[in-house]
Design brief:
alpha/beta; six-stranded mixed sheet; five-stranded parallel sheet; 5 helices; 13 strands; globular
Length: 247
């Protein structure tokens, strides 16, 4: 690991592709090696780019601990877009360029026509909604050409933003604090709405070349990132890190 990882998208660069595990979601039985994780993140980025997502655009993403949330974060990050996990149910024109949520909840949101609805899970019956799986599958498997700077905002909520540089600096500290390397699996046991969870649970294992685990109660990682309302009591992992200590 070197300081060349200035922005989140650097973690899924072409040279990092391999058959080592990168992302796992036991509840659905899905697992991505580094090759597939990188390629799928690029495809998501290219799809969002085709929908008009660019630097400073906002992308709303359901905070569910599923691969689609992580892959959308990675894809949007390579465009310089800002990701807002669990955005408000309604918004004004231009607030979100794209909204990526489960098909079962897509009708819970009321955004103007300027927001592109992208549903994942079951195929939506409303043809005005894009279907994540179909659109991403058909995209070009090459990294988007956009240049992203460390000072570009990566995460946002109503009252704050966090830059790529801040997330990556925090991720470096997590790698050192937990002693992470490419053989480690980091369990995400906190909400993606918390920037510390994203930095420690997503960026840090990617930075170390390890694996992100979106766990259920029966699967454990080598270490875990805990949300602000959770303690280490009863957590399967012996090494834990509270998100509030990260960002």
């Amino acid at each position: 690991m070197t300081d060349e990882f200035a922005v989140l998208g650097d973690c899924v660069a072409r040279e990092r592709r391999s058959d080592r595990p990168a992302l796992r979601h036991p509840a659905s039985g899905r697992a991505y090696d580094w090759r597939r994780c990188c390629t799928t993140a690029w495809k998501v980025g290219n799809y969002l780019r085709n929908e008009g997502v660019r630097e400073e655009a906002a992308v709303g993403v359901a905070a569910d601990p599923v691969p689609e949330s992580v892959l959308t974060l990675l894809g949007a990050s390579m465009l310089g877009a800002t990701v807002q996990f669990d955005p408000p149910a309604t918004g004004e024109q231009g607030v979100l360029k794209a909204l990526v949520v489960p098909t079962a909840r897509v009708d819970d949101y009321d955004y103007p026509p300027g927001t592109r609805y992208v549903a994942y899970g079951d195929e939506p019956t409303d043809p005005s909604y894009a279907y994540f799986e179909r659109e991403v599958w058909s995209e070009n498997p090459t990294a988007p050409p956009d240049i992203v700077r460390p000072e570009t905002a990566l995460l946002a909520a109503q009252e704050w933003t966090v830059s790529h540089g801040a997330v990556m600096n925090a991720a470096r500290e997590v790698v050192e604090a937990l002693g992470l390397d490419a053989d480690d699996t980091v369990a995400v046991r906190g909400p993606l709405t918390h920037p510390g969870v994203v930095a420690a649970g997503i960026a840090a294992p990617l930075l170390a070349g390890g694996e992100i685990l979106l766990p259920d109660d029966e699967v454990r990682g080598d270490c875990a990132v805990l949300g602000p309302d959770r303690t280490a009591d009863g957590v399967a992992e012996g090494r834990t890190l509270p998100a509030d200590r990260v960002l």
